[in-house]
């Protein structure tokens, strides 16, 4: 009796471009606007009243400027205490964690407060930064790129880290050994292509990136691009789906008499 | 003889049509509809408009965007964009390979490109329309790799110095460094390479076009699907400060002919912007630019003409991987990665003798075999086995004078402004050029980037702004 042949087909992962207005994820824009069902009250009113429209635009701009404010550079700290302390202060203020060379991790507590003991560590380089979940963006990377001896950088689930930010990481090429981008909603395979500058990279985590169109293929290509790096992430077989079992043919295999 | 029953049925069908007409009339009379008691003229442009932009590609839309953004007070200027090809089937914007780089030798070009990449990075802040999803221009930050032979190495070093001064992130690489970084390159004949580390790459031009279109429509710019066939202008004989007489012209009306019809609408206008891309030369002739004795300012034509360029898409399974930048060979051949499936886009600029006939957009596949493939295979040995998947052709708005753009007003036809002639760089400089032209229109001078060397008058005075590229 012939064993049922399971055939593997490459199935494109289906996902929708989130269209929750400006704050949602995106793909190519629909030129004539989206036909939305269930429009919210705010949108309905904004279509009819200039005041509501102005209010909505103001709220949007305030949200954007809040992110910019969080990513401002601390130039006065930089001038007084040096780039390592300024970078550490920046990360701690955003809610991340920092580890100086030869020391323990410094984290802010529940309320976001942290001790300022590290201000005296002016000459000690920062070795590891955990900016998971922080609102760091392209401008905010200025403070990080000044940390010349950074060895490990974790940017898991950062909502504003995108391909442009990845293209900026090349100054850290000589020291960076570990990079984690798991769960970043805006990182796609195009940004991963510019990680080849990081020739010292030994561990790269690219799991759970929703904007990457084919995670398995991307992982294979990234592994080829960085031969000495261990790439954690999408299993290459996760894109493959078992096809329907084929009917056993009559002529295949010995039929019982 | 008509059958009585058929007539009845015909009458019944006609009645349904009449009902929908009546409903349409009632809906148009109610508030919110555009009521025209005679007939529907919504396809015609308005009878007057402050600015008429000839050409709705990325440059025209960029000028429209910046005009509406920089105008004071809000809503002061009425802008009309006239585009005759509403499917953009022959527009240079959408047929472009989509690259953006700062590796130029003219400092103004570097500045234009730097601002444009800034614009693209913050595109969702510039072109945000409420209720619509954010744009994803699919930017690949992989950079440009320009290779130079022995002859061009000194020029390349100079260029990189200029680029670094303006703020571009470019680094020079020796052949050995090249081999280490990109093992698939054959560095024979390469003396130096310049590699853009940041702010360079390629993106999706269609997305930028649609984003601009959507945003300018939300800002109140009017669009018209038609062709500009005539300019009605008036002349004034004026004396310059030194006493010589000059015939200044001013365009009063633009005749816009509607697609596939003999109907035209005269649009009264104050300013005309020529952003017609490859066809800008023809539009300028309509305005009388170049009609005069040769050698004078009146006789200087706008030297922008159509040039056809081919782009080929091929597949090579052993080809370079994800890190492939946009590579430009010293022979002029270029290629870049497209997607994840080992597909590559590329082409080559033909020499003056081999220029193809720009009458149509047919692709010459022999050109690939003879002129593109041999240098490619020599530079990247993996490309010896490749399979061409598809190809297309597009137009350059080629400036035959010095292959750089024309920006700013014409010295004699005082209300026609140019934003054209970029010879293949229009897409990557469009946001910055749009802003420069808008500043020129609104303020009278360039404010952010000084493009005085790109004015029209250089065609008469003979000062070429030429790129010293190794290409």
TrEMBL record, chain A:
By which gene is this protein encoded?
Answer: DMAC2
The record describes the protein's role as:
Required for the assembly of the mitochondrial NADH:ubiquinone oxidoreductase complex (complex I). Involved in the assembly of the distal region of complex I.
Subunit comment for this entry? Interacts with incompletely assembled mitochondrial NADH:ubiquinone oxidoreductase complex (complex I).
Q: Extract the SUPFAM superfamilies matched here.
A: RNI-like
Q: Which family does it belong to?
A: Belongs to the ATP synthase subunit s family.
What domain of life does the UniProt record list for this protein's source?
A: Eukaryota
Protein name per UniProt? Distal membrane-arm assembly complex protein 2
Identify the InterPro entries for this entry: LRR_dom_sf
- The signal peptide, as residue positions, is none
TrEMBL record, chain B:
A Gene Ontology molecular function term for this protein is: oxidoreductase activity
Span of the signal peptide = none
Subcellular location(s) of the protein: Mitochondrion inner membrane
Recorded superkingdom: Eukaryota
Q: Does the keyword Oxidoreductase apply?
A: yes
Cofactor(s) required for function per UniProt: FAD
According to its record, what are the GO cellular component terms? Answer: mitochondrial inner membrane
Membrane disposition: Single-pass membrane protein
Which terms does the UniProt entry file under GO BP? mitochondrial respiratory chain complex I assembly
Q: Which UniProt keywords apply?
A: Electron transport, FAD, Flavoprotein, Membrane, Mitochondrion, Mitochondrion inner membrane, Oxidoreductase, Respiratory chain, Transmembrane, Transmembrane helix, Transport
All copies of the FAD dependent oxidoreductase domain together span 50-440
Q: How does it assemble?
A: Associates with components of the mitochondrial respiratory chain complex I.
Q: So what does this one do?
A: Required for the assembly of the mitochondrial membrane respiratory chain NADH dehydrogenase (Complex I). Involved in mid-late stages of complex I assembly.
| Full protein name | FAD-dependent oxidoreductase domain-containing protein 1
Give the originating organism: Lynx canadensis
């Amino acid at each position: 009796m012939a064993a049922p042949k399971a055939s593997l087909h490459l199935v494109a992962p289906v996902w929708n471009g989130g269209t929750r207005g400006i704050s949602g994820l995106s793909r190519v824009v629909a030129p004539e606007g989206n036909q939305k069902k269930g429009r919210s009250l705010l949108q309905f009113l904004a279509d009819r009243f200039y005041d509501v429209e102005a209010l909505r635009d103001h709220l949007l701009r305030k949200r954007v400027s809040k992110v910019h404010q969080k990513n401002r550079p601390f130039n006065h700290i930089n001038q007084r205490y040096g780039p390592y302390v300024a970078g550490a202060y920046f990360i701690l203020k955003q809610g991340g964690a920092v580890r100086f060379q030869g020391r323990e991790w410094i984290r802010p507590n529940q309320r976001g407060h942290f001790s300022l003991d590290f201000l005296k560590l002016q000459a000690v380089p920062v070795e590891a930064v955990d900016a998971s979940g922080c609102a760091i963006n392209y401008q905010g990377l200025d403070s990080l790129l000044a940390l010349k001896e950074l060895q490990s950088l974790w940017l898991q689930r950062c909502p504003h880290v995108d391909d442009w930010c990845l293209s900026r990481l090349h100054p850290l090429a000589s020291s960076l050994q570990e990079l984690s981008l798991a769960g970043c909603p805006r990182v796609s395979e195009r940004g991963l292509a510019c990680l080849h500058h990081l020739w010292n990279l030994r561990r790269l985590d690219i799991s759970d990136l929703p904007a990457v169109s084919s995670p398995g293929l991307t992982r294979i290509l990234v592994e080829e691009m960085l031969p000495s790096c261990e790439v954690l992430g999408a299993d290459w077989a996760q894109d493959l789906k078992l096809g329907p079992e084929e009917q056993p043919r009559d002529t295949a295999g010995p039929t019982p008499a | 003889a008509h059958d009585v029953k058929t007539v009845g049925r015909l009458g019944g069908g006609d009645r349904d049509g009449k009902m929908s007409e009546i409903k349409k009339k009632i809906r148009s009379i109610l508030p919110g509809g555009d009521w025209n008691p005679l007939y529907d003229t919504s396809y015609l442009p308005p009878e007057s408009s402050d600015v008429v932009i000839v050409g709705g590609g990325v440059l025209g839309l960029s000028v429209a965007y910046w005009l509406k953004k920089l105008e004071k007070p809000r809503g002061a200027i009425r802008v009309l964009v006239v585009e005759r090809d509403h499917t953009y089937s022959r527009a240079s914007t959408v047929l472009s390979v989509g690259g953006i780089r700062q590796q130029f030798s003219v400092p103004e070009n570097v500045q234009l490109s730097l601002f444009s990449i800034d614009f693209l990075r913050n595109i969702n802040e510039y072109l945000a329309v409420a209720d619509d999803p954010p744009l994803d221009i699919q930017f690949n930050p992989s950079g440009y790799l320009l290779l130079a032979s022995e002859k061009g190495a000194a020029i390349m070093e100079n260029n990189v110095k200029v680029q670094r001064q303006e703020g571009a992130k470019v680094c020079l690489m020796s052949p050995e460094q090249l081999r280490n970084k990109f093992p698939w390159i054959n560095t024979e004949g390469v003396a130096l390479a310049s590699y853009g580390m940041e702010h360079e790459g390629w993106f999706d031009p269609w997305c930028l076009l649609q984003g601009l279109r959507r945003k300018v429509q939300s800002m109140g710019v009017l669009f018209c699907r038609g062709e500009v066939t005539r300019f009605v202008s008036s002349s004034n004989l004026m004396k310059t400060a030194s006493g010589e007489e000059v015939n200044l012209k001013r365009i009063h009306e633009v005749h816009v002919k509607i697609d596939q019809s003999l109907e035209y609408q005269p649009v009264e206008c104050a300013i005309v912007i020529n952003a017609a891309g490859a066809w800008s030369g023809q539009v300028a002739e309509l305005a009388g630019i170049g009609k005069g004795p040769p050698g004078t300012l009146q006789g200087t034509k706008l030297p922008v003409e159509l040039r056809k360029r081919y782009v080929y898409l091929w597949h090579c399974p052993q080809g370079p991987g994800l890190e492939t930048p946009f590579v430009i060979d010293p022979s002029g051949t270029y290629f870049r990665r497209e997607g994840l499936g080992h597909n590559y886009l590329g082409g080559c600029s033909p020499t003056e003798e081999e220029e193809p006939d720009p009458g149509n957009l047919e692709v010459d596949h022999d050109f690939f075999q003879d002129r593109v493939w041999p240098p490619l295979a020599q530079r990247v040995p993996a490309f010896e086995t490749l399979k061409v998947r598809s190809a297309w052709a597009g137009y350059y708005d080629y400036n035959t004078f010095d292959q750089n753009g024309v920006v700013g007003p014409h010295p004699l036809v005082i209300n026609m402004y140019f934003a054209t002639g970029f010879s293949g760089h229009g897409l990557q400089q469009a946001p910055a050029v749009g802003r420069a032209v808008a500043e020129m229109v609104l303020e009278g001078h360039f404010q952010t980037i000084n493009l005085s060397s790109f004015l029209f008058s250089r065609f008469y005075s003979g000062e070429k702004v030429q790129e010293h590229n190794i290409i």
